[in-house]
Amino acid sequence: MYLKNCRLPGVLFAAVFFGASGRSFGNDAATVKLFESECSTCHGKDGKGKTSMGRKKNVEDWTDGDRLSKVTDDEMKAILEKGIKDKDGNVTMKPPKKVQAGQFDALIKYSRSLSRGK
Ligand code: HEC
Predict the structure, then answer these.
(1) 29-80, pLDDT tens digit by residue?
(2) Which residues contact 83 (CB under 8 A, 6 or more apart)?
(3) I need a surface site. Which of 1, 33, 79, 100 has the fewest CB within 10 A?
(4) Confidence class of residue 24 from pLDDT cuts 50, 70 and 90?
(5) Domain 25-116, what architecture?
(6) CB-facing half-sphere around the CA of 41: CA atoms within 13 A
(7) At how many degrees (to 10) do helices 104-116 and 29-38 cross?
(8) Paired strand residues for 91
(9) Is the C-beta atom of 79 inside 6 A of ligand 1?
(10) Taking the domains of the chain in order of start, what are their residue ranges?
(11) For a pocket test of ligand 1, which of 24, 36, 39, 113 has the largest count of ligand atoms closer than 8 A to its C-beta?
């Protein structure tokens, strides 16, 4: 009885989670797709930021050295939750609307994998 009650939320969670985004861990197709739809307009599919929007916003080239190693996972999560403001308080990167908290880790991992592929 106890177990039965306990399992339900897990099953629901899995259904919602996997249903919404496919396999969500690692550099799987769903993560790549999410990155390409939510991030690549500015950061580029290759993480170089050489898109017209990226140039306009002065995004850093993630493949230039190991740039993302200077940003911790927690900082990256905060960016995904709250976006980024410059020192004058202007929003330079809005928090991505379609990215859910459960997808942060996979996105961060994927971003880092772009960074390493110099
Ligand atoms: C509207 C353009 C835009 C979009 C879309 C965007 N970013 Fe950014 N992002 C920026 C800007 C501008 C900065 C700050 C400048 C910089 O340092 O590159 C930034 C910085 C970052 C940083 C900090 C590291 C760094 O380069 O300084 C991370 C990590 C990051 N973005 C991840 C993401 C992820 C993941 C997504 C997709 C969910 C995303 N961004 C979507 C514009 C964008």
Answers:
(1) 999 999 999 999 999 999 999 999 999 999 999 998 878 989 999 999 999 9
(2) 91, 92, 93, 94, 95
(3) 1
(4) very low
(5) Orthogonal Bundle (1.10)
(6) 8
(7) 80
(8) 85
(9) yes
(10) 25-116
(11) 39
